[in-house]
Amino acid sequence: xxxxxxxxxxxxxxxxxxxxxxxxxxxxxxxxxxxxxxxxxxxxxxxxxxxxxxxxxxxxxxxxxxxxxxxxxxxxxxxxxxxxxxxxxxxxxxxxxxxxxxxxxxxxxxxxxxxxxxxxxxxxxxxxxxxxxxxxxxxxxxxxxxxxxxxxxxx
Amino acid sequence: xxxxxxxxxxxxxxxxxxxxxxxxxxxxxxxxxxxxxxxxxxxxxxxxxxxxxxxxxxxxxxxxxxxxxxxxxxxxxxxxxxxxxxxxxxxxxxxxxxxxxxxxxxxxxxxxxxxxxxxxxxxxxxxxxxxxxxxxxxxxxxxxxxxxxxxxxxx
Lengths: 155, 155
Fold this sequence. Notes:
Two copies of one chain form a homodimer. In chain A, strands 1-2-3-6-5-4 form a six-stranded antiparallel barrel. The model of chain A has no long low-confidence stretch (mean pLDDT about 95). Chain A is of the alpha+beta class and about 160 residues long. Chain A contains three helices and eight strands; from the N terminus they run H-E-E-E-H-E-E-H-E-E-E. The interface of A and B includes residues 29, 35, 37, 39 and 40 of A.
């Protein structure tokens, strides 16, 4: 436990977290699970942070989509294992790539390095509402790691 | 899809994957799920690759341990979202830190930057047997990404 940098303030963690979410080509590890039997699934997906929502694009039907449709729940991480942003989220809406509102489709294309509309008609946008967001680097940042709880940013 | 490096050969992916597993302080994202309701859980944990097994240490009782005890199944990723090693694994054995065989306890301490035995008596080693290992970087490496299937390395 020696030699660790001082833990960041909450304000700094919030700023770092928002910066990470808004990075061009932010990628997340997206964990979901089957509704029965608890079979975990995990994939990397490119994320857009739009209107305080996480927007993913998945080439359907995928296990991520099937799991989300059945359970409504995902847990996502961004960053590295020693500079973690961890997000619990609920599926709010999904849109076929051929019939998505502009804020989703144009927003996703603008926030990432690719546009699912150019790739095929089978993609689906998944709009997730974060319910809890935590951010920590090393063990000395475990306290105060919760930045959002029940969908509300903590002050 | 332009500008991607040539996909690696299977032999190169295998070598890269083993090197990653054997890295000092290799960290994995470990996804598990509740047996009922499919609630996903995801945490970063330091991994040791010993005797072709993944050994983790968790400060019990954790949700990862509870989920693994109930479902027996985890999915782990190493590396980055654009240089992925993805592992499906089954819980084979678990040992309290106070009563673990030397190959696990000494092996874990030697392969990582910490020794759970020095941290507290509540840690548990989790020994996972990989059943499937996949490795890919970009989309052009999706074909041939499976290096192990049903617990057997593919040749």
